[in-house]
Write a sequence for this structure.
């Protein structure tokens, strides 16, 4: 059962990896008139495909393994040992090659290989135990435990992907932190209407309104904007759109209720 389940996982991995590779290539394209921010977010499609494949494979293992905990069945232990050694070596090599990846898709792919390594290790341990002591129940028990562990980690990766798709604030940043850092810069009299999101988990984007001295010249405002962008880049936000507004009473031309001096 474990050999068949891992074989199915590896087949699903191959198909999902091909899709991820394709989407990663698309994500490298620069922006154009259709996608002005570029194609980086296309990599999230690959991450979703990988996550869905892992979840489907994990559910398959659970459906097959749980009944065999109740009614254990004998297996060909010697054949399982040989296949498990090959599976550990091949998937272990792949996991080592992918462990340095930083993108969301690369991290999901790495978990794919880790899942396969753990699965084949479980097959190897269970096969050795069955070979020596005929404890056939170890196979489905280990399969269930490893599958639950992998599903837990993939659930966290899937949550991260959905947060990006819904334009949530990137991990490690907050609107309060960004606004407080901007407010510390000399010449800034207020900051509000701040939005922070990320394209793919690595490239962050921000837009905000900054109040400056009404007597600030165009050159001084430009210098202040550059200073703010440099500070934002230090925070990990290289792309920022900043609206400079004089700190005057009255309504903001953009309809922002906070655009007035106190």
């Amino acid at each position: 059962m474990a050999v068949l389940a891992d074989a199915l996982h590896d087949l699903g991995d191959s198909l999902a990896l091909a899709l991820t590779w394709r989407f990663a290539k698309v994500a490298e394209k620069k922006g154009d008139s259709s996608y002005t921010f570029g194609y980086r977010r296309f990599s999230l499609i690959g991450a979703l495909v990988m996550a869905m494949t892992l979840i489907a494979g994990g559910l398959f293992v659970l459906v097959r393994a749980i009944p065999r905990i109740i009614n254990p069945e004998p297996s060909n232990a010697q054949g399982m040992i040989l296949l498990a050694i090959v599976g550990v070596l091949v998937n272990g090599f792949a996991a080592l090659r992918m462990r340095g990846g930083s993108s969301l898709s690369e991290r999901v792919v790495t978990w794919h290989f880790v899942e396969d390594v753990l699965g084949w290790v479980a097959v190897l341990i269970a096969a050795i135990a069955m070979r020596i002591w005929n404890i056939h129940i170890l196979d489905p028990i280990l399969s269930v435990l490893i599958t639950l562990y992998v599903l837990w980690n993939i659930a966290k990766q899937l949550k991260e992907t959905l947060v990006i798709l819904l334009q949530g604030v990137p991990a490690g940043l907050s609107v309060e932190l960004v606004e407080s850092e901007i407010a510390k810069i000399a010449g800034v009299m207020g900051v509000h209407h701040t939005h922070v999101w990320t394209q793919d988990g690595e490239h962050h984007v921000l837009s905000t309104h900054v109040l400056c001295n009404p007597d600030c010249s165009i050159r001084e405002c430009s210098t202040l904007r550059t200073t703010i962008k440099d500070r934002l880049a230090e925070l990990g936000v290289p792309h920022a759109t900043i609206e400079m507004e004089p700190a005057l009473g009255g309504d903001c031309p953009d309809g922002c209720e906070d655009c007035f001096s106190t």
Q: What stands out?
A: The chain has a mean pLDDT of 83. Helices lie at 2-27, 43-70, 77-98, 104-133, 138-165, 175-183, 218-234.
